[in-house]
Specification:
The complex is a heterodimer of chains A (552) and B (483).
Chain A lengths: L15 E6 L2 E6 L17 E2 L1 H17 L5 E6 L4 E3 L1 E2 L1 H6 L2 H25 L2 E6 L2 E3 L1 H7 L3 E5 L5 E3 L2 H5 L7 H8 L4 H8 L5 E2 H6 L5 E3 L4 H15 L16 E4 L3 E4 L2 E6 L4 E7 L9 H7 L4 H19 L5 E7 L2 H13 L4 H18 L4 E6 L5 E2 L1 H8 L2 E5 L13 E2 L16 H5 L4 H9 L4 E2 L1 H7 L4 E3 L4 H14 L2 H12 L6 H16 L3 H4 L4 H4 L14
Parallel strand pairs in A: 2-4, 3-6, 4-7, 5-8, 7-9, 8-10, 9-12, 16-17, 17-18, 18-20, 19-21, 20-23
Antiparallel strand pairs in A: 1-2, 10-11, 13-14, 14-15, 15-16, 21-22
Helix pairs in contact in A: 1-3, 3-13, 3-20, 4-6, 6-20, 11-13, 12-13, 13-14
Chain B lengths: L22 H21 L8 E7 L8 E7 L37 H21 L10 H28 L1 H13 L21 H23 L4 H39 L7 H6 L5 H17 L7 H9 L20 E8 L2 E8 L4 H27 L33 H11 L3 H10 L30 E2 L4
Antiparallel strand pairs in B: 1-2, 1-5, 3-4
The chains are: A alpha/beta (552), B mainly alpha (483).
Bound molecules: fe (ii) ion (2 copies).
Chain lengths: 552, 483
């Protein structure tokens, strides 16, 4: 199988166009039928596969960093009479289960990013729907802050997955209909059980869309609405953006990737991927002007981008790496200083965007279905956002004192203001709040130690790491843990970890990644969908699915 | 028991479906009726609403004598609901329910699919009336004017037929869709008709004839395949519509034929041998054959788009479900299920046109289109016979199926009428040799002068061989002067 690459840029897009005009951007979906990522299907009617979504994710990211002046993004189709037909069915039918699951997760993360752009950065997505907008197409619309539907008697929104394909609208569809748009549950039931969807006044009355627009004046109305959103936006920047230049990345054989701040190595025998983050070596930029001058070269942004890419690579291309070991090397005080520079200037657009990006990358860590373990070793650099990686892990091991024959400084962990609110998880809580859900005093005790280099004893005492071992026990304990992990069922581990990671309140996001995704992934395994006679397999043949009628 | 062969006039809506005994549907249709009349007056034939027109009205579904001819003002035309008589013991002729008794009620699981098909068919019927509404002003004769109106009122009746099914079988959703059929409008930026060809202009009478030849023939093929439907009321509705549709294609075929005939006669009279001496031919006040060929190219390619994508999931679903069959399904010698059958399908790949075998189920559209092309080719042959008889050396041809397509595998391709694949620039450079140019349109428009005297014909078209309802040549088909 060829490696899936998540790096792209607008000049290489096959499916999207970005047009920026002042504070409004048009993000135009015009999928190249013959541009599928894999063989065996055509991306008809603006249907999408992972390749289309990789470009979308890239476009959303670039709009935030490269076009900070944009306050409203109009998402629309470049094709006549069709907005988007959703995820390509033949692609789904032909894809391995793991790919489907990873694909859905990535598309979900991207949809969340669209919402976050409006909520956090005042860059609002407005969806302009003309023609059919079905399944994943409507889920794209649902992820926007405002949905406009042409009132032309034929443009519809639909979630036909259940009646047509025997699967769920799993890219947030069911959840956003009820939780975000607050469609009455019985109407939602009607809507989700119909193939042909809803148009016109009923779509508006049922809150499936926000606005009906005359077809004849569609473009003007959409632009006017975008301008109104832009005028209301809390984003008050008029600064030039920074270019997200290509990543420095080198594949070293098949088992290693070397970035400028991250290196990945894979031990195929044990199924362990080690992701090592290299802390900064230069002082933090002193001013926001200096930060802006560094742009994509700034350590803190480079590191986020490289870690993000590494995570996606492992998810899609290294299915057998069941354990990810996170290490960090460098000077934790210096790493904290780089973060502090952002925290102190968080109301500057670029500093703010980088912090928000870290928030997203850390969520990507949370949602990575592998056993995650942090090794806080001598010479390590777990401070602030890097410490947050350790808190995202299922377990963390910290080394006590110096190790024999190792002249690196003893392991230290530094909590910063960042750990207490900048990087909430999808449940709306910080990782430390989630960790200490049953012991609020522990949270306060940890906060009292903010900005101090904590030893292993202290960190263990505060409950910030799972175990602390000295150099006598370290190697064996870590080895035994990893060997034990490798002996368990990957499925059971995925389920166990996903359940244990997200304690605390439910949010729309946790419901999407928990309830909706879990049900979808179950259905994706069931013969009624994917069996030889299942609806997904049979889609396009004209023959309907044969269902096992027993309820489970 | 009502008589299903003869039409009852005891309700406002003539019908053979026992409407007077079906209060719910009758009420719904009566509520829909005023909107329909408004639509007809606003978007139907312009300028002729008050004239007496000699029209046929369906009064029975007996194939031997179903129509009556008389003068009527079009808004007072009795648009009826007529279904072909029920065939005792009819079974579903194809798909997974092959051999089961035909459905008299809509099966729940196919409700949405059926409704969509009915709405798409229904949407085309009023569309062509809208497209043709300005033509009355330039009719080449009263005979042609009447034919136009006959086609128009029957398309109106076809709309009624679809609306009846929506009201009768599809509840509140059906009523909503029935209203939608009057809200969309051909060529409207606001709410266009659903299919491309039905939003194109019909600017002149040659376009009208080409449209009724090619596009109504698509209608015929769609009706033929819906007439096979396992949903019996749809089947019966479409079977009766087909009897009317035949006249529409007659109007198209003879209209183009008479245009060709007149051109050839004029060329022979003037001693012009070269059909490509376009200016000389045009100077005779007739439409040169190459321009007619261009019109043919345009309308043929537009009508092929109406068949949808060559490989279609929707078509496969509809066939397998027993909803929409193939042309002359019952005469095809196979299992009627297409479980393992394949069908050759044209495909545009890597800049080449190829034929590949696809599962026959998903190639249903392709097959219907092939049947259509054969059907259309018959008419072209008869036109060529007209030309040959006059001694002019010219042949009309159907362009390659990949030419000028907007839907399906050939949409991105640039193919000449002869089937040669070109680059976009070369194709655009050749466009005006193959498709009517603005100048061609202007020339044709310049000939479009009305001829209103009974028995007289505009100079660019030959008279018909016989009149409608065997009326004499100078019969006053439309009474222009007493309105
Ligand atoms: Fe018709
Ligand atoms: Fe017709």
């Amino acid at each position: 199988m060829t490696t899936i690459d998540f790096q792209t840029e607008p000049s290489r897009y096959r499916h999207w166009r970005i047009q920026v005009d002042g504070d409004v951007a048009q993000l135009i979906m015009d999928v190249d039928e013959n541009g599928g990522l894999f063989e065996g299907y055509q991306l008809k009617l603006n249907s999408y596969d992972l390749g289309v979504d990789i470009e979308l994710a890239d476009a959303i990211q670039r709009l935030r960093f490269e076009h900070p002046e944009v306050k409203a993004v109009v998402l629309r189709s470049g094709k006549e009479r069709v907005f988007c037909a959703g995820a390509n069915i033949r692609m789904l039918a032909g894809a391995a289960h793991a790919h489907k699951v990873n694909f859905c997760k990535f598309t979900n993360e991207t949809r969340n990013t669209m919402e976050a752009a409006g909520a956090e950065s005042g860059q609002h997505y407005i969806c302009a729907v003309q023609g059919a907008c079905a399944g994943g197409g409507y889920e794209l619309a649902l992820a926007c802050d405002h949905i406009m539907l042409a009132d032309d008697g034929s443009s519809t929104v639909a979630l036909p997955e259940v009646p047509l394909l025997a699967v769920l609208p799993g890219t947030g569809g069911l959840t956003r209909v009820t939780d975000k748009r607050k469609v009455r549950r019985d109407r939602a039931d009607v809507f989700c059980a119909m193939e042909e969807g809803v148009k016109g006044q009923r779509a508006r009355d049922w809150r499936l869309v926000d606005e009906l627009v005359s077809n004849a004046t569609f473009d003007q109305s959409v632009l006017a609405r975008a301008k109104a959103f832009a005028a209301e936006s809390k984003r008050k920047v008029d600064a030039p953006g920074i270019a997200l230049t290509p990543l420095q990345r080198r594949f070293d054989g098949t088992d290693a990737i070397v970035y400028s701040t991250v290196s990945v190595s894979i031990d195929r025998a044990t199924g362990i991927a080690t992701v090592e983050i290299h802390g900064p070596t230069e002082p933090a930029p002193e001013t926001v002007e200096a930060l802006h001058g560094q742009g994509a070269e700034a350590w803190v942004l480079r590191c986020a981008r490289e870690l993000d890419d590494a995570l996606l690579h492992l998810r899609f291309n290294e299915l057998e790496a069941g354990v990810i070991v996170f290490k960090a090397s460098g000077d934790p005080k210096l790493a904290a200083a780089h973060e502090r520079m952002l925290l102190d200037n968080a109301d500057h657009w670029l500093a703010g965007e980088i912090l928000l990006y870290w928030k997203r990358v850390l969520k990507r860590v949370d949602l990575t279905s592998r056993s995650l373990v942090a090794l806080v070793e001598p010479g390590s650099c777990f401070a602030g956002m890097l410490a947050e990686i350790a808190f995202a892990c299922d377990r963390s091991y910290m080394a006590e004192g110096s190790f024999e024959g190792d002249n690196r400084p003893p392991a230290a962990l530094i909590l910063t203001a960042g750990n207490f609110g900048r990087y909430p998880m999808s449940n709306g809580l910080t990782r430390l709040q989630t960790r200490f859900l049953g012991e609020p005093d522990s949270l306060a005790a940890a906060q009292a130690q903010q900005d101090r280099a904590l030893t292993a004893d202290q960190a263990a005492e505060l409950g910030l790491v799972t175990f602390a071992f000295d150099d006598i026990d370290w190697e064996d304990e870590v080895r035994i843990f990893l060997e034990e992990r490798a002996s368990f069922s990957p499925d059971a581990l995925t389920g166990m970890e996903a359940n244990l990671r997200f304690a605390g309140p439910e949010t729309m996001e946790t419901r999407i990644f928990g309830r909706l995704t879990a049900w979808q992934n179950w259905i994706f395994q069931r013969p009624n969908a994917v069996g030889e006679a299942g609806a997904l397999r049979r889609y396009g043949t004209g023959v309907r699915g044969d269902y096992d009628r027993r309820r489970v | 028991m009502f008589d299903a062969t003869n039409v009852s006039y005891d309700t406002q809506i003539p019908n053979n479906v026992g409407l007077s005994g079906d209060r719910r549907v009758l009420k719904a249709l009566e509520r829909w009726h005023p909107g329909y009349i408004d639509w007809w007056k606003n978007l139907g034939p312009e300028g002729f609403q008050e004239h007496m027109v000699y029209l046929r009205t369906a009064v029975s579904v007996d194939p031997k004598g179903w129509a009556r001819f008389d003068y009527v003002k079009m808004p007072e035309y009795r648009w009826g609901i007529l279904l072909a008589p029920q065939v005792e013991g009819r079974t579903i002729p194809f798909g997974q329910h092959y051999g089961e008794p035909a459905w008299q009620e809509v099966p729940g699981e196919y409700r949405a699919m059926l409704r969509r098909l009915i709405v798409i068919q229904g949407d085309t019927e009023p569309a062509s009336v809208e497209q043709q509404r300005h033509l009355g002003a330039t009719a080449p004769s009263l005979y042609d004017l009447r034919n136009l109106f006959q086609v128009n009122v029957e398309e109106g009746r076809h709309l009624w037929a679809m609306v009846y099914l929506l009201h009768k079988y599809f509840g509140a959703d059906g009523r909503e869709e029935a209203d939608g059929l009057l809200q969309r409008c051909s060529g409207s930026a606001e709410a266009p008709r659903m299919l491309g060809a039905f939003n194109e202009a019909t600017p002149d009478w040659l376009s009208f004839f080409m449209f009724t030849f090619f596009t109504d023939r698509d209608g015929k093929m769609q009706l033929e395949s819906l007439a096979q439907s396992g949903f019996d009321p749809l089947s019966r509705t479409c079977r009766f519509m087909l009897t009317e549709e035949a006249h529409h294609m007659f109007v198209g075929e003879t209209g183009v034929g008479r245009t060709i005939q007149r051109t050839c006669e004029a060329m022979v009279e003037a001693g012009i041998d070269d059909p490509y001496a376009i200016e000389k031919v045009r100077a005779l006040g007739v439409i040169d054959l190459p321009t007619i060929q261009k019109k043919l190219n345009l309308h043929f390619s537009l009508s092929l788009d109406l068949f949808g994508a060559e490989v279609s999931t929707n078509a496969a679903n509809a066939f397998n479900a027993g909803i929409k069959g193939r042309y002359q399904e019952t005469r095809i010698d196979d299992d009627h299920k297409l479980t393992n059958a394949t069908y050759p399908v044209a495909e545009f790949k890597d800049g080449r046109i190829e034929i590949v075998d696809m599962p026959a189920l998903s190639a249903i559209n392709m097959r219907l289109r092939d049947d259509y092309v054969r059907d259309a080719a018959g008419g072209v042959k008869r036109w060529n016979a007209i030309i040959a008889k006059t001694g002019v050396n010219f042949e009309m041809t159907l362009p390659h199926e990949a030419f000028n397509r907007k839907i399906g595998t050939f949409a991105p391709a640039n193919v000449t009428p002869a089937g040669e694949v070109l680059g976009a620039d070369a194709w655009n450079a050749g466009r005006d040799q193959w498709l009517p140019s603005a100048a061609d349109g202007e020339f044709i428009a310049s000939l479009m002068k009305p001829e209103t005297e009974p028995g007289k014909y505009a100079g660019w078209i030959a008279p018909p061989k016989i009149g409608i309802d065997n009326k004499p040549g100078d019969f006053e088909y439309v009474k222009l002067h007493d309105a």
